[in-house]
Specification:
Blueprint lengths: L8 H19 L6 H8 L13 H22 L6 H17 L2 H9 L6 H27 L8 H13 L1 H4 L8 H15 L3
Helix pairs in contact: 1-2, 1-5, 3-5, 3-6, 4-6, 4-9, 6-7
């Protein structure tokens, strides 16, 4: 299929993803049409299919890109030597990474219900990989007698939910700096795991 005259895939493709992410986060995936996305980008609706297979593929690609970036960024993060240092590193990393991407976070957590089964399985697999990072830290801390936890899986889900929730209320113009939020949340997480 020929590219629309005057369009550039290295410009239009990212603009398309940015517009879709913003619209999905503001209005919800189900409420946003391909026509709305096209209007936001400034192309005809049919031209979108030069860049994406369909709306479902767009949602899947946004979620997958977010989780791929998350996992890659964690790999590059200093982890510390002990379970307590690793947990602090994870806590601070999770908050920093997610505060920079509130729209992507909203979509990755709230639009799972709109994924087709095959796409859901891929995204769920990536989410589980990330959850396993934290669960492994908590298990190592429990085994070392550093954390007091009745159930590491439940603690993992609770901690991730608490940390991710920061994106729903935090504003850079608010009374707390990002660093202060990290320190407060680290203190809460430490207490939550019985450290």
């Amino acid at each position: 299929m020929a590219r629309t005259s005057g369009s550039h895939s290295d410009i239009t493709g990212p603009r398309l993803r940015d517009a879709a992410q913003r619209l999905f986060a503001q209005h919800g995936y189900a409420a946003v049409s391909m026509r709305q996305i096209a209007a936001e980008v400034g192309v005809q609706a049919g031209a979108l299919y030069n860049y994406i297979p369909d709306k479902q593929g767009l949602l899947f690609n946004l979620m997958k890109a977010h989780l791929d970036d998350l996992l890659a960024a964690w790999q590059a993060e200093p982890k510390g030597e002990t379970p307590l240092e690793a947990l602090e590193s994870f806590t601070r990393f999770h908050i920093r990474f997610h505060l920079d991407r509130p729209d992507a976070v909203f979509i990755a957590y709230m639009e799972l219900r709109n994924l087709e089964p095959a796409n859901f399985a891929v995204i769920e697999g990536l989410r589980k990989r990330y959850e396993t990072v934290l669960e492994d830290i908590l298990r190592a801390g429990k085994d070392a007698g550093v954390f007091t936890l009745p159930d590491t899986k439940l603690a993992t889900l609770a901690v991730i939910a608490m940390l991710t929730g920061v994106t729903t209320w935090y504003r850079d113009t608010g009374r707390l700096s990002r660093d202060r939020v990290e320190r407060i949340y680290w203190n809460m997480v430490r207490k939550a795991v019985g450290a």
